Amino acid sequence: MERMAQLDVRSKLAILADAAKYDASCASSGTSKRKSDKGGKGLGSTEGMGICHAYAPDGRCISLLKILLTNSCIFDCHYCINRKSSNVRRARFTPEEVVDLTLSFYRRNYIEGLFLSSGIIASSNYTMEQIVRVAKLLREEHDFRGYIHLKTIPDADPELVHQAGLYADRVSINVELPTVAGLTRLAPEKSAPQIEGAMQDVRTAIDDGTDAKKRYKSAPRYAPAGQSTQMIVGADAATDGDIIGRAAGLYGRFNLRRVYYSAFSPIPDASAVLPLQRPPLMREHRLYQSDWLMRFYDYQPGEVAAAADATTGMLPLDIDPKLAWALKFRDRFPVDVNRAPREALLRVPGLGVKAVDAILATRRWRRLRLADVTRLTASVAKVRPFLIAEDWRPVTLADKAELRPLVAPKREQLELFAA
């Protein structure tokens, strides 16, 4: 603690900004709009273009100061670089230092908000109090109207978590690992029921706040950007099917905005119970794609899980989950682009939500040809075997026993000094 006190703010920032890079759940979608010019006072805004870059649903880039309050921790989670037994350089901000940094970075036009997480010092309640104090100082003393995302602390008092939602745009608590068995093995000091209980409390508060806002304009807003969570991929034996099922359950029970996935990364002086190698980053990418299918393409969790290998439970790495599902269920195809309902078109590989909406709008006035569909997709080769157009029927392709070599993306050798 003495050595931490001797560090200047710049040194602390270098340590604690680097320590925060392992948290993937840094986003700012769904927040309410607030402007500093409204009422002639206030500082910051959740609007406009802007050290973490997040993207809102309308494409705006929002830069966030992403730091830990401290990387010291009383817990000893095997997978965490900041665990109690880890031999890393420690640092700790005071709430006032975080506030000063946030305001200073904002005034220099570096950021538009704050993402704050922390290791656990002294106790869960003490740490949560310090995190809430940062947000309270920003909102009440400095009238900061930018985006704030607070990570809540496991086992913290529900009242403290509730206060976090009154000041933050988004609150989140990490489930850490996809299975209870994995959490028990790799993070024995954390409790899955307690984590889920805190998530349920946040959902209840968000629902109550939304209902109160409909009834009374003066009702305080509560976490308008909702809550999110994160799970580590590849640190335990959970399959992609396990992860997809877990994510679907979290969305359904707690109405989450996002589930984030973070590929396990080997850490210095790692525990012997951890794998020696990190999983392929493509696995993390495929899980995000499967998450997208459930959230925007109306796939049921069982359908997405069906795209995984029946033996290993893993999604293929060389093709995306939507294409893998289509190849497994070829009896659902081809679909007629001029007649099929929206839900059937959304299952055609290569067609996104915008493309499907464009098809539905266009076919009210005329029948679509293959060339029309080609203009809406990046890969006509992927689309052709799965649809029927005015001038196209995939008779030969539909009869092929093995479609995968024709529709899978071709491997290319990258050139280091390509022009």
Domain count: 2
Judged by helices, strands and strand pairing, the structural class is alpha/beta
Q: What is the terminal-to-terminal distance?
A: 52 Å
What portion of residues belong to β-strands?
5-15%
Helix content: 25-40%
Cα radius of gyration in angstroms: 24 Å
Give the helix tally.
17
| Main sheet record | 7 strands, mixed
Low-confidence stretches: 28-37, 40-50
Q: Average pLDDT across residues? A: 85
What overall geometry do the principal axes of the alpha carbons give?
A: globular
Enumerate the strands of the largest sheet in spatial order, edge to edge or round the barrel.
1-2-3-4-5-6-7
The SSE string, one letter per element, is: HHEEHEHEHEHHEHEHHHEHHHHEHH
GO molecular function, one term: iron-sulfur cluster binding
Pfam family, one: Radical_SAM
Protein name: Putative DNA modification/repair radical SAM protein
Keywords: Iron, Iron-sulfur, Metal-binding, S-adenosyl-L-methionine
Which features does this protein show?
419 residues; seven-stranded mixed β-sheet; two-stranded parallel ribbon; 9 strands; globular; metal ion binding; iron; Putative DNA modification/repair radical SAM protein; iron-sulfur cluster binding; RuvA_2-like
Question: Can you walk me through this structure?
Answer:
- With 419 residues, the chain is α/β, with parallel strands linked by helices.
- It has two domains: 2-216, no CATH class; 329-407, no CATH class.
- It contains 17 helices and nine strands.
- The protein has a seven-stranded mixed beta sheet. Strands 8-9 form a two-stranded parallel ribbon.
- Strand 3 (113-117), helix 4 (124-141) and strand 4 form a beta-alpha-beta unit.
- The longest helix is centred in the middle third of the chain and has 24 residues, at 192-215.
